[in-house]
Amino acid sequence: MNESTDARICYLHDHRQSRGWFFGDSPFSFDTPLLLIQLSLSASVTATLQRFFTPLGQSVFISQILAGFILGPSLLGKNLAFKNLIFPVSSFYIVDTFAYFGVMFFLFIIGVKTDLSLIQKSGKKAVAIGVGAFLTPLLFNFVLGEFLIYSTPMEPRLHRSILWIGSFQALSSFHVIVCLLADLKLMNSELGRLAISSSMISGMCSWIWAGIVFTGRQGVRIKKWNTFILMLLFLGIMVLLAVFVFRPIVLWMARSTSNGKSLRESHVTAIFVMVLLSALFGEFFGQHFLFGPVILGLLVPDGPPLGSALVNKLELFVSSIILPIFFVVSGARLDFSAISLRNFAIIEFLAIFALIWKVGGVMLPSIYCKMPIPDAFYLGLIFGNQGIIEVLVLEHAQSLELIDRQSYSIMVLSIVLFTGILAPILKFLYNPSKRYTSGEAMTIQYANQFTELRVLACVHYPDHTPSILNLFEATNPDRQSPICFYVVHLLDLGGRSAPVLVAHQPGARNSHSHESEHIINALRFFEHENRGNVTIYPFTAISPYASMHDDICLLAAEKRVCLVIVLFHKHPLIHVPEVEANSIRAVNHNIINNSPCSVGILFDRGAMNCNASILSRTEVYQIGVFFLGGPDDREALAYACRMAKHPNICLTLVRFVDDDMGNYYMNDVEQDIDIINEYREANVKDEHSLYREESVKDSMGLISVVRSIERSFNLILVGRRHDENSPLLAGLNDWNEFPELGCIGDMLVSLDSDSKVSILVVQQALSIQNGFDEYFGQDSSAILDMNWNDVRVWPASRGPM
């Protein structure tokens, strides 16, 4: 495989199509089937390695480069039989062309997903960190390189390129850092957002430096300054054509598809043709063919409708199928057998110090801006990672003879080693949830009823809005107890590279607001109808599903929210593709597990999904609370008590008891009795607030009672977690289809029923529960020994509902 880069070799090229094994033709002797085998093998090996490396915190780049090592001359390529069969020298002309074709569209995708407005939005902190991450290692490595030149004997080739080696080790890439953060699920963390905005600055500085070095090198090699000036002139013409011709065209395409229309195939075809022409234009006038597609990609507006459509059509095929073959081709250029120990030590010495300078250049401005030292250190480690962009830069530097082949091999090996070490360190040491889990938990039960209640609701689609607004109305905001609602429209990070959290101010226009416009208008109308009682703050969060919960949890912690409401991933009136529904379900799971406050999961069977108020359509809106005991049930009752103050709401507390067992399963029984007594004392004369006890002995009895009374209500509130040792829940966990709803919630959702009752499953904040799981793990004998005569329980009302 190495011969493909060393010499010109003549070989017989037969254009006949393979007739197949039956006629004596081997597919490995023909270009097309050989290319298909190479693509399949490269993609398969990369995907297999990624399955093993992802749990270890390794990025996709590591799997891709290792696949190149395995299939290249470093490992399997040493075997002549494998090399001549799968990767013969004659195939590298086509494979190399195909690989760079994939790289061209890969870089175009990177440009499409990049939001250049991040540069304008970057604050002084991000600018200082970005400049420090680039300038500090560049300057100090130059100084260190000069020192090595005069103090250390080295080969002439290394002596000529040592300064360039030091400068290329100082580079960093916006795309590489964004991909690393996505792989580690840190994009929505505070550190991740700062890294993204800072890496945009350092990445632009790196690209400008690389462009200056490469263009200057070409000018030196040409030795005709008029030709060099013409190259710069046509480079400027390319940029002007992209800005003043291509940019208006794609903006017109985006406007023509912004009203819910699908992107036309003719538009996509036109953009792809312009990408190919831009690459051809660059090749004609002495520029690298990758330059044009990158510029065009940057000028395409990110996100829907145009950016998302282009990324969806290209990214999976290019990244998973075509791109892996590029690393095999790159692996063919690596020759570890020719590496001398002395050269390796010198270049690695520079690489280690480049990492130290980079971490220091990031930490100093970060600490100056009062960032905690551990976070500043982790941010420096993030900037220490490099990837495919740096490999491309090194390949071009090798082709321009700025570095030799041995130095290229060592530098690529250095990138793999450092990235392979730093990524797992970040994955296992940095905890992005510490910021919103270290404070005091917030719950409705312990909130002051006469102060403003703060609730955060998450919606994924405009069709979710009526359900949320009807729940808001049922929460009963009034002047004595106003409510502040934060509503976040959650959107997948499709066609974008950086997550965005947008706060929509009244009357202000935002580039992302068109996707949330209908939701915002409905919220503003609800706020106007309830002015003085309700304040609404709408947000749009655009982020990957894997880290979407970080936005919600951080916002809940910052705004001191008592309850986060999420919609169940299934809805009878809203069709959601299964893959997307599973992603939404995963977001709900993450919010439940990480939220600093209580969480409610709303399952609407369709009755609440209407534009008219549900409370105005009936004289009495029936709400039931199913109470078995525990912190979650107490939180559900506390929330229902706020609802019960609405004149059109009738609240019924249904408490399930087991007379024979003496309620032993309610480990937290004293607090349960207290909140029940408070409820009954406060509503003793209120005919719209009822209390009912149901005596059951086992899970079958519980199911039977629930079936008989569920139709009596429009909305049922229930706690998520209960004592698993309770005989009333025996066997229910074995049939639990949706664990996020708990036993009772899952039973209500899964019951074969044609009722229209909606379900709200409530979980109290984890850290306020004083060892909730420990309570359920207690020996039940401590509960059986309790003196029940000291516990005052109001007599139960067993009349009809």
From TrEMBL:
Residue intervals of the Cation/H(+) antiporter C-terminal domain: 623-764
Keyword Acetylation: no
Keyword vocabulary terms for this entry: Ion transport, Membrane, Potassium, Potassium transport, Transmembrane, Transmembrane helix, Transport
Major location (coarse): membrane
Transmembrane portions of the chain: 60-77, 97-114, 126-150, 162-182, 194-216, 228-250, 271-296, 316-334, 346-364, 376-395, 407-430
Membrane topology: Multi-pass membrane protein
Domain (Cation/H+ exchanger transmembrane): residue spans on this chain: 45-427
UniProt domain Cation/H(+) antiporter central: residue ranges: 484-607
Localization: Membrane
One family name in Pfam for this protein: Na_H_Exchanger
UniProt similarity note: Belongs to the monovalent cation:proton antiporter 2 (CPA2) transporter (TC 2.A.37) family. CHX (TC 2.A.37.4) subfamily.
Protein name, UniProt field: Cation/H+ exchanger domain-containing protein
